[in-house]
């Protein structure tokens, strides 16, 4: 015989003797978290932040003043150096013109077909024209110098 022919005995599930424990169905309010620690932390951090910001602002402006003073002190040196570079290039242009035009009869260096370019000896432009400055140089030199932004202070 197989196990299928046995009669199964069923037992109904019943509550425990003495009954179930009472179920609490009353409203249980949530535990209140006190607000004063958060407010006090916020107040303390704001006070600290105010004084820290004031101190950092003072240091920032001190550094800015020092930077401005150093820029104003170094500016004449930089301008003189730029003028020196320009004069050196003008001299190189003049030497190159002398070398190029020495075979042309009646050519006077520094003139435009015999007319003086500048009417006075004291005139010196703030920024030379690119064609004057790079008149006899290679285009690659001009591109390199222009991209190097040598005129910026």
TrEMBL record:
Keywords, sorted A to Z: Electron transport, Membrane, Mitochondrion, Mitochondrion inner membrane, Respiratory chain, Transmembrane, Transmembrane helix, Transport
Q: How does it assemble?
A: Complex I is composed of 45 different subunits. Interacts with CARD15, but not with CARD4. Interacts with STAT3, but not with STAT1, STAT2 and STAT5A. Interacts with OLFM4.
Asked if the keyword Transmembrane helix belongs to this entry, the reply reads: yes
Quote the InterPro entries the UniProt record gives.
Answer: GRIM-19
Domain of life of the source: Eukaryota
Specify the protein's topology with respect to the membrane: Single-pass membrane protein
Tell me which GO cellular component terms the UniProt record holds. Answer: mitochondrial inner membrane; respiratory chain complex I
Q: Name one Pfam family in it.
A: GRIM-19
What family is reported? Answer: Belongs to the complex I NDUFA13 subunit family.
* Listed transmembrane segments: 33-52
This chain's protein is named: NADH dehydrogenase [ubiquinone] 1 alpha subcomplex subunit 13
